[in-house]
Design brief:
The structure is a homotrimer of 191-residue chains.
Chain A: H1 3-25, H2 30-51, H3 58-61, H4 64-79, H5 86-111, H6 116-137, H7 143-146, H8 148-167, H9 172-190
Helix pairs in contact in A: 1-2, 1-4, 1-5, 1-6, 2-4, 2-6, 5-6, 5-8, 5-9, 6-8, 8-9
Chain lengths: 191, 191, 191
């Protein structure tokens, strides 16, 4: 597995944890955990791939993503009752998943030869849309809207920093690391 | 019209009935009936076709699907006031549409040469997403989430049984029939 | 810039105004204005382009649309507090954006060689879906459903009139003008 695929699976796994935790707060059954977990995990990347008209949506090309998301959902199904504050876990895990997903969306768009503007938009979409769908379907106030100023700004600043690093001649991997690092730093600093 | 197209039109027609019945419960006007009826009828198949990157979404390739969905919506507009329990009608018609749609999604994915995992996922998406969009737009608790355990399990079991039959060498039509039959049996048994 | 692109940017700009006004009513921060403004502005055209399987979604091909939507959102962020009745502004601006978007969707579908039925459906989708997503995300009752009879009927009648004009041999521009004019007349007459 390449470093890129490893990052992508990480973001899918952690986003699925947050989706399943929201399902736990809403007292859904195991199918609700799997559904919300998987929707959150692959939602942002799916919208990105549809918009960019890729040959195949990432989880159809490699179904292992769905397996990872399902495993994370089942894990939460059995452990959520042991957690003290699911809300705090959701916010922190969401910050981790968000920063990794921003870097993945950034890398996908750069690899497809998109210009800097679309690269930044795709990084934001990959980072935020899964969580937005999670919150809308579960009828919670979206983190994106309730904590919007710092939430979306963190993604945008991360993507801009990544673009600046690429523009200075750094390899894509470094640009992605900078994007993830700055997004997480800004988001975590505001929690 | 092939047997396949006949099944597909059936699922579109019955799902449109359920969408229009939800519009009736929400006391919408004729446009609300047409909108919710059509959205429910073609929603699952549209998401499936976008995800699988088909050349054309099914109802753009053959607009007769929209005509069928519109006819079903108008039919309910005039007959809904005569029904005793719209909720019971919705649940039963939804079970019928669900099982037929699972078989159609199963057949489409097999015909496109997808592997068994994606075939099962596409069967579930075709079966459940139209009804989910119906319930989200109408602000009702989704049947998929409120009765999730048996609802999604029925689709999944139906798809697995269909795959098993194909694996034993049966023709696609038989696999689809088994998928529809088991989905309906499990779903109906739980209503 | 062609007349077509000018119309399209107009519809994007005015729809973004309405989305940002809804964000103002919901007391969101600047990111909420940008998000709701942009979603409303490009939502209908994005769904149209995905359904029609165009080579690239319009705002990915020309990122100027996102810049226009962002400018409109920021404009409202600073001027909304000065407005007396944001609700009245939303309804009137929505009527303008709706009629222009219907004409644009009409023109795009005709240029892609779609038949009259799909042309009418795409005109309606381009006109109504951005506003529907705006209202669903902001948790307001959709204008499309609450005022559905005249709202969707206006789009449909506009598209039909445009088709009739084309059928009589008129150039596409005239068909689009007729579609926009009739949609606006019917919608404005009902406000």
């Amino acid at each position: 597995m390449t470093a890129f695929a490893l990052l992508d699976h990480t973001s899918v796994f952690v986003f699925a944890l947050t989706g399943a935790l929201v399902a736990s707060r809403a007292q859904l059954d195991i199918v609700g955990f799997l559904f919300l977990g998987t929707l959150t995990a692959v939602g942002g990347g799916t919208i990105r791939d549809l918009l960019l008209n890729r040959d195949a949506v990432f989880w159809i090309a490699s179904p292992s993503y769905i397996a990872v998301a399902s495993a994370a959902s089942v894990l939460i199904y059995f452990t959520a009752p042991l957690l003290e504050s699911r809300r705090a876990w959701i916010v922190w895990l969401d910050a981790i998943a968000l920063s990794v997903a921003v870097a993945v969306g950034f890398g996908v768009a750069v690899n497809l030869g998109q210009g800097p503007f679309i690269v930044a938009v795709m990084a934001m979409i990959t980072g935020t849309m899964g969580g937005l769908m999670r919150d809308v379907v579960a009828n919670e106030v979206p983190l994106l809207l309730s904590q919007g100023e710092i939430y979306a700004t963190a993604c945008f600043a991360g993507a801009l920093a990544g673009l600046a690093v690429l523009w200075l001649g750094a390899p894509l991997g470094l640009g992605m690391a900078v994007a993830a690092g700055l997004t997480f730093g800004l988001r975590a600093g505001s929690v």
